[in-house]
Structure formats: C-alpha cells, structure tokens
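Worked example 2:
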Amino acid sequence: MSPAEPAVLNRPEMDFEEERVALACAFRWAARFDMHEAVANHFSLAVNRAGTRFLMNPKGRHFSRVRASELLLLDAEDDAVMKRPDAPDPTAWALHGNIHRHVPHARCVLHVHSKYASALGCLADPRLPPIDINAMRFWGSVCIDDGFDGMSLDGEAERVARLLGDKPILLMRNHGLMVIGETVARAFDDLYYFERACSTYITALQTGRELRVVSDQVAARTARQWRDYPGLGEDHFRELRAILDREEPSYRR
C-alpha cells in the first residue's frame, strides 16, 4: 500500500471489510448523483451464502456521511434486531430483512426515491419505452409493482419481497425504485443507468412532441448487447472508488 492510499484499520467492526468499503462507496455516490432523499433510503448487501446476514446503513445517517465501519451487520432471522441500541430504521428492517430472508439471489439491494424513476412510477402508464440506448438496456428487465399499500412495514414489505423474480429492477409505483444485483458494482451501475434512462424519457415527454420508439426487435438486441458488454459495471465502479479514494477517503474508515 502506498503512503497516499487510504488505510482501513483492522477493527472488530470492520469484519467484511471489502463488502463494507464497496457499499460505503455506493452511498457516497448516490448522494453525489442526487439519488438520495434526506435520511430515508437504504442499501444492503448480503455477506453469507444464504443471504440472510447483511450490511445496511444505520438509522438517520445521511448518505454523504456513511462510513464503512458504521454499517450495521444484521441477521434477517433475528427477531430481536429492533431491540438493539443501534436498531435500524423500522421500514428499512422490514423491507430489506424480508428481501434477504426470501430472495437469496438479491445479494445487493438498493432502494431509493430518485427523482426521475419516482416520476415514472407516478404516471398512469409507468412503462419505460425504448427511446434511447439507456432505456433499451432495461428492455424486459423491469418489474412494476402496482400494489402500493402504505409504508414498507409488515405485510407490505413481505409483498414487495415476493415480487422480486429474476429482474434487476423493481419500479415501485407511488413509492420509488428497488434495484438488486449480485454485487454492489453491478447493482449500482443498473441504478445509475436506469435513473439516466428515466431522466431522458421524462425530459422527452416534457417537450410535448411525438416520441420515436424503436422496434421490439431492436430493443431486445440492444438489451442483449448491454448484457454481453464485458466488465462495464465493474469498470464504472472501480473509477468511482478511485475518485473517492482521492477526494473523500473517509468513506473507507
């Protein structure tokens, strides 16, 4: 390690060091990209094979201040979690706990109320048409939740968890956005590009002019090309970490 490289101390709270650092990076960049909302949103990352033990941000911490060492290590099977002195936000525990309990392939779970994805979810027709290359990336990869029934507690959280199939994007109508992935890098890359695609679509709608929508065949081909593009999400996230290492190394501590 070079003298200029930020160090991560070997402390008990730094178990799962690499996972903590990656997730902390995602929080900082979600704030930089203005995809956070006060202290209301949450990210989590499974750290065991079953997916039931996971890291999540502490209650009331702004995304721009999250550090690797303060991420909570929670057990989705532990009913006493909310009695801990550092108990997580109850809606976050209900939603992320249910997902990690019921959906083991959802290793990384990113939940935001980002501006353009949330706007899309408020439209009578919340589908994202293939009008640009970013929107085409998500052709056939979005599940739409039509059943919003209040804050993500109890039955609402379990209902949302059971909607997650093999699609990485869950557009939660009248609520926000859920992105799942095998790694933080892949999930965050999907989050970034989906919000960009929604931004383009909402902006195009604001012109009041007719949209140029490509054919299903072109959309499907482009989506496949996105999936086959080597290492794009990993390259993107590596660069995001490098920028933080230079500008905000405190995220690692």
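The first strand starts at residue 42 and ends at 46. The beta strands are 42-46, 53-56, 72-75, 108-112, 142-145, 169-172, 176-181.
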